[in-house]
Design a protein that fits this description.
The protein is an all-alpha fold. It is 56% helix and 3% strand. The chain contains 14 helices and three strands. It has a three-stranded antiparallel sheet with strand order 1-2-3, with helices on one face. A hairpin with a 5-residue loop joins strand 2 (297-299) and strand 3. The radius of gyration is 27 Å and the shape is elongated. Mean pLDDT is 81; it is low at 1-36 and 156-163.
């Protein structure tokens, strides 16, 4: 779902405005001439702070660090990370954290642990893209802010308790009548999160989703292929997300939506069969039938299957 990538939106935005990092120049200092005994060279941060005192203060405040204690490389990389974020988010450096947290606050606090995990996974990509240290990435900074926010809110653990309410269990059973209790427990966790995300009671989620699908699909046989394509995409997402949230793929939000989309596809196949619209894409015959589980057609003329996954 969208919320799995919410926490890294602004980090990815920074990539769009990426300029190749300046290469560090290792120049050999010549021996000072007696006529101008130069003082000790200033550090990168001392020089920057002297020229940009206000900006330097904003950068140190946002990172929560005294940059005079950092190496030239770390100071430069941390500064450039904030400059990229500022450009990507179209705001001043001082507004980055505030704007980021405003986006986070649009979503339930229980999702913050997943946001932390998904953002953490972006560090390696960011390190490779910008050739910077792990602690100097925007992802590292956002994880820090997310953890602070999670602690401030006293958010409950994202893991579902064993005590799903009677109402939740009955709704889950009505949605998934042949599902084991342990799987229903996992699905209730996903249903709760979907309910909070879409501002819809759990008992209304299936209708909300199916209505949304049908509002985007015109119900014609010519465009039916979009539904199996959507199913395949969500199934792949279910397998990708499952390890992050410690659920079986079929019990994730994506897995649940796959179940509901499968119901829609079965109903549509029956509609096309009954109306005579179903046509074999190989020999163009309309002499077709549905197979046992209503998951695809078979042509009675050429015996080829179609309309499935």
């Amino acid at each position: 779902m969208i919320w799995f990538i919410l926490a890294i939106i602004f980090a990815i935005l920074a990539f769009y405005f990426h300029n190749s990092a300046d290469k560090m120049e290792n120049s050999t200092k010549s021996n000072p001439q007696p006529s101008y005994a130069a003082p000790k060279s200033k550090t990168y941060w001392e020089s920057f702070k002297e020229s940009n005192p206000t900006k330097a203060k904003e950068i140190e405040t946002l990172w929560g660090l005294d940059f005079s204690t950092l190496s030239d490389r770390d100071a430069r990389e941390k500064k450039e990370t904030l400059e990229r974020l500022s450009k990507g988010m179209n705001c001043s450096i001082s507004q980055i954290k505030e704007n980021y947290l405003k986006e986070i606050e649009k979503y339930p606090a229980r999702l913050i642990p997943q946001m932390i995990e998904s953002t953490s996974r972006e560090r390696s990509k960011e390190m490779e893209t910008f050739h910077i240290g792990e602690g100097n990435t925007a992802s590292a900074l956002m994880v820090k802010w997310l953890k602070e926010r999670h602690k401030e809110l006293g958010a409950p653990d994202a893991n579902i308790s064993a005590s799903a309410s009677y109402k939740e269990m009955e709704i889950a059973k009505s949605y998934f009548p042949y599902t084991k209790i342990e799987d229903l427990q996992e699905r209730i966790k996903s249903l709760r999160e979907m309910s909070e995300l879409f501002k819809c009671p759990i008992e209304g989620l299936e209708k909300l989703y199916k209505d949304d699908v049908m509002s985007k699909y015109d119900g014609t046989y010519e465009n039916f292929h979009y539904l199996p394509e959507a199913y395949k995409y969500m199934a792949n997402q279910a397998y990708e997300v499952a390890p992050r949230v410690a659920l079986k793929p079929e019990n994730t939000s994506y897995g649940i939506m796959c179940d509901w989309l499968s119901d829609i596809m079965k109903a549509e196949r029956h509609k096309f069969l009954d109306s005579g619209q179903a046509r074999c894409p190989y020999c163009h015959s309309t002499n077709v039938k549905l197979l046992m589980f209503d998951d695809e057609f078979e042509c009675n003329s050429c015996n080829k299957r179609f309309g499935g996954l």
